[in-house]
Amino acid sequence: MESGSRIELTRDSEVVEIPGGRAVQAPKGTKVSITQSLGGSYTLLIPTLGGLFRLAARDADAIGREVVPEPSPAGAPSEPRTPAELRDEVWSALRTCFDPEIPVNIVDLGLIYDLEIEPRPDGGHRVGVKMTLTAQGCGMGASIAGDAQAKIERIPGISSALVEVVWDPPWTPDKISEEGKAVLGIG
Predict the structure, then answer these.
(1) N or C: at which end does the chain have fewer Cβ atoms within 10 angstroms?
(2) Per-residue pLDDT averaged across 58-66, rounded?
(3) Nearest to residue 173, comparing CAs of 88, 116, 102, 114?
(4) Does residue 43 have a pLDDT over 80?
């Protein structure tokens, strides 16, 4: 299936309205077009529902794609790890998270403002992330933050994560990395 080709949902599926963030049931047989497939989720154009919607990776079978099982939370590994050892893995996990309207990950978009990793008494680590969105009115904040939190919590050695959406300082396009600008075709 190519991006943009018209397909029908093979079963009823929950989709999330973009950018409003409202969950909606799309019935079996609804005609959709895939506009983006990044980070495990899909952005669908659903004309009968009036616009763009995000379909979670767990529902990929509804559009004829393979559902890749999500690993269970890993918790503490057998060998203790330091925050410095985990930092690169957390950044890598965040690079698999995307705004469903923009084909650039949240790190290269410049949405991540702070990342803290603290050891916990159980041998695991707590991760705190402060991120923003490209627009304050975007209803996808909870969805994007939830995706980031779930991916961080799957990293061995992470026992909990909290991803908080903040608005200070306001996001501006100058926060986009050179890699992100290249993807977007801006200089």
Answers:
(1) C
(2) 93
(3) 102
(4) yes
Reading the block at residue 39, the tokens are 């980070």
Q: Helices marked H in 38-108 — which ranges? A: 83-94
Asked if residue 33 lies in contact with residue 98, where contact means CB atoms within 8 angstroms, the answer is: no
Residues 6+ apart with CB under 8 A from 12: 25, 26, 27, 28
CATH tag, 6-63 = 2.30.30
Mean of pLDDT over the chain: 90
**Please, what is the Cα angle at 23 between 96 and 74, to 5 degrees?**
40
Q: What CATH number labels 83-184? A: 3.30.300.130
How would you classify the pairing of strands 41-46 and 51-55?
antiparallel
DSSP string, 72-90: PP--S-SS---HHHHHHHH
The per-residue pLDDT for range 154-180, each reduced to its tens digit, is 999 999 999 999 999 999 999 999 999
Q: Where along the chain do its domains lie? A: 6-63, 83-184
Cβ proximity of 162 and 149 under 8 Å: yes
